[in-house]
Amino acid sequence: MSIPIKSNRPNAVERLRKAIISQYPLLYLLSWEEDRVERMVSSIARSLNPPLQVYIWSISQGLTLGNEAIPDTGNALAVLEYIIKTPTPGFYLLKDFHREVEGNPVITRRLRDAYYALKDRGKFLCLVSPILSLPEELKKEIYLIEILLPGDDEIAPLVDYLTNRHFKTTITDEEAKRSLINGLKGLTFSEIQHVLNGIFYGKPAFSPDIIDQILLEKEQITKKDGLLEFIFPRYRTSDLGGYATLKNWLKKRSHLFTREAEVAGISLPKGLLMMGISGCGKSLAVKTISSLWNLPLFRLDMSNIFSGGYGAPENAFRRALAAVDALSPCLLWIDEIETGIVGVKEGAQGGSTTRIFATFLTWMQEKDSMVFVAATANRIDLLPAEFIRKGRFDQVFFLDLPTEEERKQIFTIHLQRKGCDIMKFDLVTLAKTSEAWNGAEIEQAIETASIEAYNEHVPLTMMHLIKTLSQTIPLSRTMTEQIKMIRTWALQRAINAS
Ligand SMILES: Nc1ncnc2c1ncn2[C@@H]1O[C@H](COP(=O)(O)OP(=O)(O)OP(=O)(O)O)[C@@H](O)[C@H]1O
Ligand SMILES: [Mg+2]
User: Fold this and answer.
1) Whole-prediction pTM value?
2) How do residues 325-338 score in pLDDT, each as one tens digit?
3) In this structure, is the dihedral angle defined by the CA atoms of residues 21, 24, 26 and 29, taken in order, positive or negative?
């Protein structure tokens, strides 16, 4: 089913209010946050003239008004009959009702009847659900509103309230407050409450270093579930060896997502596609953009999109894009993008993947939000040519196996990370011995050699490294044919990152 999603920008409450003023009697509120939706609906209900009561239904409680239970409304059909027949105006908020509708033609029919019975009677039926699941027949009657995560308008008062409660004052440093609010974007209302309460607890006052603690917590929270995972800005450009052309390209664009650039009328780059050989640092390169550009990075997990846990894949994908628009300015990282569009060629989940592909292209072409897409691809042969052409990426880079000079840099980075004195290592020999090795393999070799040295109770030396390097065969040696193919393919379509 494809209902156009009405994003809640700029404000979810406003959209909901508008739907009510426009007299849509059946609403589908798409959200993980039942509490927040309940509060939103209650606040709108109170503000109407005359104010409306809010009834809540769940399979466990039946229909309730405050503490009062309405008898004989325990099952889905009974509650629909009650709402259709009762003359009392009000909001009827039904939780998890999509489960009752699924595969049940009687409930579907009664919902359609409810549309006509409730219309213009001051009665509103709201289904609240974290996933979008509705039969085709209800498409015309139901007004869908996606309640995205809290934005500035909701986070700012909550921050004021909690800083006041903990520190008996609000934050006067406007810049710090702005960073704090931005840092909390991407979390639900109750997650924000938990994070702030936990971090403020026992501290004498607000200080800007609290923001880093918040970002670390956000990373943990969004890792657990959700389509968008926040990635803490841990890596700098100096952590990536080689790829000077790519780095230069990124550096030139590092001040574009700013107020000044906007005022100067600079048009924003839309995205970057990095393809290349496995283990060469594509993912690492994406992570470095976040600190270079000073923008939050969110990773979209394509395997979650297809897991079914978020509804039909194309709906899940559209929701993720709507959510990321609301988080802007930000970076969106789509790792191994070919998994999302592979069906174009191979037919696996073909329908969904083709639609996802189309949705992505349209979104890329039309988006006016400050979202920069950094996509990576391994199986580049699976990418349709039109994806690269029409994908509207500002640049397509190919990350090849590192050159000798680049391998020197990679050794330096990882040896220094191990606390080694780089002067004690012959980088030229190391780089020559590691011909055809990728960055990940070099890192792994240093790791293995360190374990050897540790077991011998001596510091890591050249000898340990040379021994490890000579005992391992890099992947590229066993895959010469594939790598040759990838190179030929890529160099016709992309520019070399080195
Ligand atoms: N150019 C490099 N400079 C420094 N470290 C590197 C480089 N390339 C790879 N590494 C190391 O190898 C690790 C793995 O690299 P990364 O995951 O970024 O590769 P990838 O290209 O995304 O691989 P895959 O295609 O398998 O996802 C990095 O975290 C980093 O430690
Ligand atoms: Mg990767």
Assistant:
1) 0.89
2) 888 899 999 998 88
3) negative
